[in-house]
Amino acid sequence: MHEALAPRTVPIPLRRSVPGGRPLPWLAGVGAAFVLAQLLLVVPGSGMGWDESVYTSQVSGHAPAAFFSAPRARGISFLAAPVAAFTPSVTALRVYLALLSGAGLSASLWVWRDLLPARVLATAGALFASLWITLYYGPSVMPNLWSAFGALAATGFFVRLARGAGDRRAGAGLVLSVAVVALMRPPDGLWLGLALGAAALCVRRWRRPGLLALLAAGFALGSAEWIVEAYVRYGGLTARLHRASEIQGGMGWHMAVDDQVRSLAGRTLCRPCDIPWQHPATALWWFALPLLAVAGILVTPWGRRRATAVVPAVTAAIVAVPYLFLIDYAAPRFLLPSYALLALPVARSLWWLATDRHGRLRTAATSLVALALAGHLAVQYAVLANNTAEVRASHRDFTRAAARLHQLGVRPPCVISGDHSVQLSFYTRCSSRQTGGPDASITAAGVRAATRSSAVTVVVPPGGRPHPVAGEWRREPLAPDSSASRFHGYTVYLPSSVRSSGSAQGGSPR
Fold first, then answer.
1. Whole-structure pTM value
2. How far is CA 123 from the centre of its chain?
3. pLDDT digits (tens, 9 = 90+) for 276-304
4. Which contiguous run of DSSP H or E holds residue 186?
5. Which segments of the chain have a pLDDT < 70?
6. Nearest to 473 by CA among 413, 409, 402
7. What is the phi-psi region of residue 164: left when phi exceeds 0, alpha when psi lies from -120 to 50, beta otherwise?
8. Do 370 and 471 contact (CB within 8 A), yes or no?
9. Cβ neighbours, 10 Å, residue 85
């Protein structure tokens, strides 16, 4: 172990001070339940979202890569590659990620096995896994949940090392965990490193250069690919950061707390978040979260053990700062790392409420906690059920739209531009190209040139106008037979070189 990390006193074996049973069965059970819930509630019939189509297309062996904008990082694409490269099946990709996320949850909790009782860890895992946000994104090709697992593991390794209970494996674990977060989302990795670095500097006995060096090494390792790509594709790191800020609406002081609260009703992206707050019950747990986390800190015994509650809570607060105060929109998934960390002190407070009593008072407290958790689970399930129903309907609409485009002659090699072009391109195995906006990747002259070698189409929503390049092309309805489809009233513009096949079959993912 690095000399700077060497403990100054011989630590007391931690297993003797954290009762609660053997952790492996508890944590394996939580991970298995998380996987099962995803397979039953989320995976069946689900399709690809816009962001997912972008990330998956980067490594797909069956669809051209969509435009990759400056804020994005490739970590989740790398994670999806082992399946996406070999099969177009969305279901296979979902099952793979569901299994992997169950293992990720158990592994990130396992880091804490010598620091917290097994029952507290299992409860924390169950609380986090039962959120509709966690379940919804468990089998998704999105990076936020993996940032959460990395943050949870990194904080556990940090506490172990800071308390002098770690070894070289803990040091390597800290580096790799921070690297995972930075690989998935470089800003999350930066804020995580700042939070843990601040914790190290604030506690005198934790002020070790080696500990700070491990945090820096983890961030550098994870963000290296993003930084190199900035110079290769975006004109340098400063240029990429500037462009990323533009696409995200400009980084600066923005009060997004209320946006996050409104989005908990099931809005996966609230931008602009000017919707009314119609379902307050969906946010009750959000307001209870900081109170229960503080309670978990207060009921934790003084001394070395209190770090197991304080460090996760403070880290959760710091990594949430950019999403609560520095952007002008909200997405519930942004706060997944904070929720994973806060689950630890919250679980401790719930066990204290339910068990640290005697007689009738204990029975009443236990019943109250059980009733509150049952209500919480009911709300989470209701929001999840509504979201997954919308996703399944969306999958059906995109599948039919892809079949319609194939019928109209839009088959590989092909290019789709206009509204919903990213997802439609993924479903049809076409290239997605835009002439304007944050995903601009082709000029009007380029569109004309593409018609000589590819089937090109422009998708226009009801009331919209096509780009002038498509003004003289023939027009066809995208959903001629269904008023219930999201594409009802949409028009596709096709050059004369694209001819209808007369067949509605073909190529959409299953």
1. 0.92
2. 21
3. 888 999 999 999 999 999 999 999 887 66
4. helix 186-202
5. 1-21, 165-166, 303-304, 356-360, 502-510
6. 409
7. left
8. no
9. 12
